[in-house]
Amino acid sequence: MSTLTQSNLVKNDNYWQGRWQSAAQRFAVTNPATGELLAEVADATPAQAQQAVSAAAEAFGSWSALPAAERSALLLRWQQLLLAHQDELALLLTLEQGKPLAEAKGEIAYGASYLQWFAEEAKRVYGDTIPAPAADKRILVIKQPVGVVTAITPWNFPNAMIARKAAAALAAGCTFVVKPAQQTPLSALALAELAAQAGIPAGVFNVLASTDAKGIGAVLTKDPLVAKCSFTGSTQVGKTLLAQCAEGVKRVSMELGGNAPFIVFEDADLDAAVQGLMASKFRNAGQTCVCTNRVYVQASVLPQFSQKLQQAVAALRIGNGTAPGIDLGPLIDEAACQKVHSLVQDAMTAGAELICGGQRQHSSGLFYLPTILTGVNAAMAVVQQEIFGPVVALQSFDSEAEVLAKANATEHGLAAYFYSRDIGRIFRVSEGLSYGMVGVNEGIISNAAAPFGGVKQSGYGREGSKYGLEDYLTIKYICLGGLA
Ligand SMILES: NC(=O)c1ccc[n+]([C@@H]2O[C@H](COP(=O)([O-])OP(=O)(O)OC[C@H]3O[C@@H](n4cnc5c(N)ncnc54)[C@H](O)[C@@H]3O)[C@@H](O)[C@H]2O)c1
Ligand SMILES: O=C[C@H](O)CS(=O)(=O)O
Questions:
Q1: Are 250 and 179 in contact, with CB atoms under 8 Å apart?
Q2: Is 255 a catalytic residue?
Q3: Are strands 371-374 and 353-356 parallel, antiparallel or unpaired?
Q4: How far is the CA of 32 from the centre of ligand 1 (A)?
Q5: What PANTHER family has UniProt attached to this entry (predicted)?
């Protein structure tokens, strides 16, 4: 942190109405790799959340009336500032979240790509004219911003999950209030500083860091001034927030938990499959919603695949994300470590075989060794639950029909992956998988041009792509009469 203290991107007050706002209480933000104290951040209260929502409501009229080209230019300026400060932002992100610096830099570029994408989309909010059923009428359809948008975001991508929502909301003409995760507020506050530097007007982008998630969340989902709430996080919390939004019939976007299958057919390029699995499984130490969670390998190629995978996993370097050449950083907190280890122990008790890892790097600390379990089955918690850690749960299958049924046997439906070089199989399996996103011969599928989102209990709404803007717009039908 000492290398950042001179940076004006390290903020410890909250930000709304274009001003840095203190609070009566503060909470500690610590580095998961070392436990060191990074900052003591103002602990926003529900009353302050109401002030922030009011500020967003006050700013909505002028922001939504701004020509789209002007909103676009401001988003692009913000994007340029993120890239100009990519190294500082990445270091801040690694310090508070733990991911390796290279991944953090990638996340800053990824977040910035949504600002660029929606700066362009802002200028393409088109309406319709529709042939009227009567000669004296005309039908017009216009799209307008929904209004004040609130957002609640997770700790695993503390920059990109906010940028992905704010970019679309602001492009549409909405104003925005976000509560980041308590573990990672610094990246959110740095985004606010750069929004101010970009010239985004007061009240348009507002950040409330707090330990009172429930209290702040109640305001962000129930305040009458709020038109929509966009949530990224666990399915369990998503259901709570959905119920709260239902009271006021508010628009919602839900980007929730996952349980991604990764299927390797016997006709796959096994080296490519191993590479894709390593990327999908171990990114952010397995702490992403689209990480592979279950690995199914066709029986005839399981020994060969497993051997290649073990070699790749053995080469992973685990340590403090600020050090060069690190592949795996720490898990976010003690509870995460205990959850991952309990899933591994449960699987072994139930008969799974441990190939490597299966324990913390040291008795203390939040580093969990990259782990391969084989011989897992559907009855095990490691298959049923989202692992959110660096654990590969391997099992074999015989037929395409069998593995498709197993892959779909979950209440989640976010991302799925499979490797095959048979074009007929590629179409059958892509269409047969009950997921919002499918990676074919590819383990990393997220980008701003594509519609990111899930089905079933992984939520609904899409982020990124041309579809992502629709979530922040409402359709108005105008009937012009008396024209005969
Ligand atoms: N689908 C996606 O795009 C996506 C992306 C990232 C993470 N996730 C999911 O998020 C989970 C991990 O992230 P997490 O641990 O931060 O999730 P989480 O649901 O515990 O917390 C997410 C956010 O919700 C807040 N929150 C928690 N309880 C709340 C309440 N009662 N009222 C209001 N806000 C509340 C937290 O403070 C945090 O800001 C995983 O399940 C992962 O799959 C999904
Ligand atoms: O964890 C969830 C994020 O959405 C992951 S990604 O970087 O968008 O794939």
A1: no
A2: yes
A3: antiparallel
A4: 18
A5: SUCCINATE-SEMIALDEHYDE DEHYDROGENASE, MITOCHONDRIAL
